[in-house]
Amino acid sequence: MSASHSTTGNVAPYYYVPADSKHPVCASIALMVVMFGASAWINGIDVAKWVVLAGLLGLFVVLYYWFGDAIQESEAGLNSKRIDMSYRWSMSWFIFSEVMFFAAFFGALWYTRTITLPWLGDLDHKLLLWPDFNAVWPNLGPAGVVESFQTMGPFWLPTINTALLLTSGVTLTISHHALIADHRAKAKFWLFATIVLGFVFVGLQGYEYYHAYTDLNLKFNSGAYGSLFFMLTGFHGFHVLLGATMLTVVLVRMMKGHFRSDHHFGFEGAAWYWHFVDVVWLGLYLFVYWF
After folding, report:
1. What pLDDT score was predicted for residue 7?
2. Does CATH number 1.10.287.70 belong to domain 1-79?
């Protein structure tokens, strides 16, 4: 399919209409394979884990070519201001969906601690729960149901990770302003520093999990506290890994000469996502580690 208006030179069309694409169908098939494989895996079919892996690999391949096509369209000058605006709205709604995703887990943490435990404490628990029930957070449940564990405090790994992420937000902002000023060498350096800080954060998060399992006996099945702790911090760690990967792609593109001082939404979209990850971590740091 052709563009709705012809182009001359490097002037983008009024609205570029891309050709038919097989990528959405292929991505849907890959996700369906992942879902069927995961369903079989949790029902005891061990070989299904390879089906999940195959589906994920297929999805990554589809995304590689899909984003590659989008990058080629951008570098070819086919994206008009309307296309740029559609990308911005799409990224905004994607980040909003991520906000709602984390809001659900923060809500579960708040509801469990602030609503459920006090409510259970007001019941005649000797009849409805167990004789020695005590409405304190975290709750270990009846004796023998949950192994004794220690909670994860803010010192020192979580605090160090907080400093790393806050610093990465600063370095990314410096890189962005350098790109706007067309100081590409400076933009690359500070973007590289941001990526390094992000991957160091992920490494320290892994070490924190090792410490939780081996020294604190804190596991995913350590009651509501353990489940919420690992769900919140684990999903956040995954988002940091994803964001650092996005920024790595942006750095590679920048090294290839992509982006202009007045046209670089690929950079901006990844930066939005990274700052969102920073804000989520501040919430985690306060409400998971401190309160």
Report:
1. 42
2. yes
